[in-house]
């Protein structure tokens, strides 16, 4: 089952405390209007690092899990079940089996991972899994996780060009074709 949840017991209080610490104040409550949260996401505010999300899947394809554990941008911490022969009774690795996968993300770390994994250049099974995660995020009851899901999209949509270099999909112009206008 694929799930996403906050690791903070009171994530909005923790975020407000981090924000208000910069001006030597304390939060009076744990409420934050969704527009303010959106502004923090848009600006990729450093205080978002005080929040931790857990993504867990107990039935993830091995090939997808190996792609996800490679993602280490923005303070992520991945783990997955092992297929080592010395841990499974000497059986050879079976790359067709599913694995258990868990990763701790900051909101920006999760968005960064999704930018890569939702790209049309990502392997189909990896991209399908990323869409499944985004669907779970949107389906849940937490308005802040739903807001993070709105920011989960291929990186080219955010930056306006394809960051994949020479191997883009053609949906956005390549950086080499537009950099003279930007720099």
Task: Reconstruct the topology from this structure.
Layout: E1 2-6, H1 11-21, H2 34-42, E2 53-61, H3 62-69, E3 77-80, E4 98-105, H4 107-117, H5 124-139, H6 143-150, H7 155-159, H8 175-182
Antiparallel strand pairs: 1-2, 2-4, 3-4
Helix pairs in contact: 2-6, 5-6
Structure summary:
The chain is α+β, with helices and mostly antiparallel strands. The protein has helices at 11-21, 34-42, 62-69, 107-117, 124-139, 143-150, 155-159, 175-182, and strands spanning 2-6, 53-61, 77-80, 98-105. The protein has two domains: 2-152, Gyrase A, domain 2, CATH 3.30.1360; 156-183, no CATH class.
Task: Describe the 3D structure.
The chain has about 180 residues and is an alpha+beta fold. A four-stranded antiparallel β-sheet has the order 1-2-4-3. It has helices spanning about 10-20, 35-40, 60-70, 105-115, 125-140, 145-150, 155-160, 175-180, and strands at about 1-5, 55-60, 75-80, 100-105. Helices cover about 40% and strands about 15% of the residues. It folds into two domains: about 1-150, Gyrase A, domain 2; about 155-183, no CATH class. The chain has eight helices and four strands. The protein is globular.
Which labels suit this protein?
4-stranded antiparallel beta sheet, 183 residues, alpha+beta, Gyrase A, domain 2, 2 domains
Counting copies of identical and different chains, the oligomeric state is single chain
CATH architectural group of the largest domain: 2-Layer Sandwich
What is the succession of H and E elements?
Answer: EHHEHEEHHHHH
Strand order of the largest sheet: 1-2-4-3
Tell me roughly what share of residues is in helical segments. 40-55%
The total number of structural domains is 2
Sheet with the most strands? Answer: 4 strands, antiparallel
The general outline is globular
Radius of gyration: 19 Å
- Mean of residue pLDDT values: 91
Q: Termini, distance in Å?
A: 46 Å
Number of strands: 4
Query: What is the top-level CATH class of the largest domain?
Result: Alpha Beta
The number of helical elements comes to 8
Strand content: 5-15%
The CATH topology of the largest domain corresponds to Gyrase A, domain 2
């Amino acid at each position: 089952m694929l799930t996403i949840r906050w690791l903070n017991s009171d994530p909005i209080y923790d975020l407000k405390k981090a924000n208000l610490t910069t001006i030597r104040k304390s939060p009076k409550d744990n409420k934050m209007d969704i527009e303010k949260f959106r502004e923090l996401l848009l600006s990729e505010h450093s205080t978002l690092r005080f929040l931790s999300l857990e993504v867990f899947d107990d039935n993830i394809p091995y090939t997808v899990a190996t792609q996800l554990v490679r993602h280490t941008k923005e303070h992520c911490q991945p783990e997955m079940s092992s297929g080592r022969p010395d841990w499974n009774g000497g059986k050879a690795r079976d790359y067709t089996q599913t694995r258990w996968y868990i990763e701790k993300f900051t909101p920006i770390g999760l968005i960064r991972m999704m930018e890569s994994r939702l790209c049309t250049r990502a392997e189909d099974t990896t991209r399908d899994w990323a869409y499944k995660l985004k669907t779970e995020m949107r389906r849940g009851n937490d308005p802040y996780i739903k807001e993070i899901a709105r920011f989960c999209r291929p990186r080219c949509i955010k930056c306006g060009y394809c960051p994949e270099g020479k191997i883009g999909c053609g949906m956005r112009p390549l950086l080499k074709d537009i950099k003279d206008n930007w720099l």
